[in-house]
Amino acid sequence: MMNDAPPASFWKDAILRRGWAYSTLVIVLLAAATLVTGFAREHWIADILANLRVQQQLAALLLVLICGAFRRWLWMLVPLACLMIHLPWFLPAAPRPSVSENFPMITVACCNVKSSNANYQQAINSVLEKDPDVFVMLEITSHWADEIRHATESEYPYRIVRPSDTGNFGIAVYSKSPIEQSDIFQLNEAIYSIEVVIKVEERAYRVIGTHPLPPVGKTNARSRNEHLRRLAERIRQPQLEMGDHSAIVIGDFNLTPWSPYYRDFELASGLYRDRRGIDLTPTWYVLPTFPFGLALDHSFSSGDLSPGYVHVGNSIGSDHRCISTLYWGNHPGVED
Fold first, then answer.
1. Whether the predicted pLDDT of 243 surpasses 60
2. Which domain holds residue 65?
3. Among residues 106, 146, 167, 206, which one has the fewest Cβ atoms lying within 10 Å of its Cβ?
């Protein structure tokens, strides 16, 4: 009886042909996505793709390797071009003004707990990990507010709390030091942000916690952008009672550093991103691995402060991780 089964080489060639066909499709899709990111200001979907530059770079690197394995040198030029188009977005931002890093000034933390999350103690432990002077909690419900108060009221007796049991935009600020001034304000939506003035080591700071809408859909994307525009305006022109102190803004911005709206906020507010060099650490995860994460939670500060570190915590049962930032500067009364 004759064996009509194809030889092993036939199946190998068939698999390789199919693999290359799929690879060319992905190359074309990557090229299209890269080109579309150039229209991030024109359409919310293009902005979503701009926020996914890290994932696009990972795909481009993989495709370069695949093209090399198949010896498809002309095709390799496409993912290489995509790499070069995205590369400028990963270069370090403009340097801060020179600040003498000789004195730890203040530590600020933020945690988006996710309103449906019930891992109360885990989240509280994470936000307190670096012993912050002040911390912001987002998406808190009344129950979350009670849990946080019971766990922290002895060490953080000063607080401004606005929980929400009907949405995901409850917010609160907790401080070791007395809150000298406070303002609970709304920008373009019925979403609260909180600004406080606190004094640590004889130096006063404006600390703002905020949480704009996620940019899913045209309306929400416009709302987030308008939120950031108005927030930047407020930072530039502070409320009279808040004074012109060093400013720190922290929260879930629903925005990565790879979006043009992120840089717009930096320029309009006059603040600086509190990360050094090229930092790709995600703070939000759809799955608990790097390619499925985004850097959405940020802290910004005025140029008279220097971030010693930005620490990203571990999983707390939320889709977000807590962030903590230590600021350095001159001791009050010490000249540069």
1. yes
2. 8-90
3. 167
